[in-house]
């Protein structure tokens, strides 16, 4: 049975759904019109090169898929959606440069961006230039406090890390945790949250160690952890270092169960670690294939078009949806005859607030935050397997 | 944390982790000794060695020995090419030190840029798995990778020592390193010595990148980090003292590893830069181990 038969969802129906949602001009051959009107630009700043490109490139590919879906369904009131993509290498400085270029050269009213350090660095530019900055995937908790023009479509670390720390103590019954984190924007705040929540739940954090973002050798730190004798280890790092820390942990004889956040949800990690990854728990802020059949359709599409699975699936689901949110905001602005500016886009975001998106379900923008259920996934028999859903 | 097993584990892991850096430092230091140049192009050669091996292993699915041979051959080829068409040209023009420095740096960046275009920037490991079987010896975890790293490093350093001390070609390198013009008066070709040095450095670089790539993800930019360790080792060991550079690298790696016992892990790299800063300021010719002075027996009184 094909996925479409199984779940009753296919791309054609998805396009019809977009039209029904009002993204396309009703009752017209939207595709034709979409080619005639001025395109609506969406700025995208993601790492296309550098150590994080493994995610960034796949995210952009997914965004192009989403934009194509919107345009195939007639665009937004007949306007094609156009992505203006600039590489940040996940570097704050390059992120600022990209934002300045989007403001002054491309004059986009709306920018989709990610990586906590980049989102924070770009915020002053967004606020100054009155461009709507939508963070998708960055999870530093203080992203909620970056100013009037900075919003997130992705739950911040206090959502999934809080849920994970509570689950580790109350459901898994772990009493002594070690927290290892990368010493940058991604790790510092999230590690503090994990520690606070775990201790508040009654557990003890017996080791709390930061490592340099460029480190590749963790023996000393891991021996400290071994001496502290935890019964759970939480690692909050990046794509490059999390597998390395895990590998060295296992090689030093540390057999404790390991957890991480969405960054660990990476098929390559399973190949790199093999049996050493068994029992690994990662959070996912997006529904998996068992919870949402649309995800399987997207995976099938990836397999067909790219001949592989995408990196960072949960992030990618949000990234895919973010293009549809941008389209919805543009539609609101056009329908209300508002000027296409960042201020209008911000007003549209606050007015619409609720977005029913195909990959991550209902998204409600609540101030500068969004709240979503947390899905836990674990590695079982060499595969990522759903563990539980935490509301 | 003062458990002897922990201290031994740090000693062992710190030493084997330094193995690849020792090979890179020896390559850098030998080149500096013979040619008198700080050849930063070696960062580019590191990238060439790694990605050649990666291509041969992953895309061509050929055995490891072919990958190593191809990596060494291509790296040596590019190193000799850079020597013959770049550095020799600058020597002929009697260019200043700054020109050489900038040329080697730009060569590295150029190679890294090309590698980025060809292979992308996602971290890659030579083998799909980064796990290595472990043996516990006296409570200390020793992996197969550790044994390979130590074995390769010891064999290569021994061979280099034999080459420099026991072969005519090696003696020529030493002569050119001491005084190139004087060596040429004795019929030794400095140009040949430079090219032989480039080939030796390429072989060391290939071995080092095999060790690095078997254990951790490498991106085209990674060699820029690695060459910094080679520079620091060369400076600490003292310019022209190739094997001391290697030893300095091991000592520095151990200092970094042991530092975790007293400072947080995130400060480890500060030690590296701190040492570099202090060495350049206070020990511009490197750190010298105190010589052991043996008391000589007094000469016998001449008999009258």
Describe the structure.
The complex is a heterodimer of chains A (391) and B (304). With 391 residues, chain A is α/β, with parallel strands linked by helices. Chain A has 14 helices and 15 strands. Chain A has a 7-stranded mixed beta sheet with strand order 7-6-8-9-10-14-15, sandwiched between helices. A 5-stranded parallel beta sheet of chain A has the order 2-1-3-4-5, with helices on both faces. Chain A has a 3-stranded antiparallel beta sheet with strand order 11-12-13, with helices on one face. Chain A starts with a helix and ends with a strand. Chain B has a two-stranded antiparallel ribbon with strand order 1-2. The longest helix of chain B has 32 residues. The radius of gyration of chain B is 21 Å and the shape is globular. The mean pLDDT of chain B is 89. Chains A and B meet through helix 4, strand 7, helix 9, helix 10 and helix 11 of A and helix 1 and helix 10 of B.
In short:
By secondary structure, chain A is an alpha/beta fold. Chain A contains 14 helices and 15 strands.
Attribute tags:
heterodimer, A: about 400 residues, alpha/beta, Rossmann fold, 2 domains, 7-stranded mixed β-sheet, 14 helices, disordered N terminus, B: about 300 residues, mainly alpha, ABC transporter involved in vitamin B12 uptake, BtuC, two-stranded antiparallel ribbon, 2 strands, about 5% strand
Number of domains of chain B: 1
Q: List the uncertain runs of chain B.
A: none
- Class computed from helices, strands and strand pairing of chain A: alpha/beta
CATH top level assignment of the largest domain in chain A:
Alpha Beta
Q: How far from one another are the termini of chain A? A: 32 Å
User: Structurally, how many domains make up the residues of chain A?
Assistant: 2
Number of strands of chain B: 2
Q: Could you describe the largest sheet of chain B, including whether it forms a barrel?
A: 2 strands, antiparallel
Return the CATH architecture of the largest domain in chain A: 3-Layer(aba) Sandwich
Strand order of the largest sheet of chain B: 1-2
What share of the residues of chain B lie within helices? Answer: over 70%
How large a portion of the residues of chain A is in β-strands, by DSSP E?
A: 15-25%
CATH topology of the largest domain in chain A: Rossmann fold
Structural class of chain B: mainly alpha
Mean of all residue-level pLDDT scores of chain A: 88
Number of helices of chain B: 11
What percentage of amino acids of chain B are in beta strands?
Answer: under 5%
Shape of chain A: globular
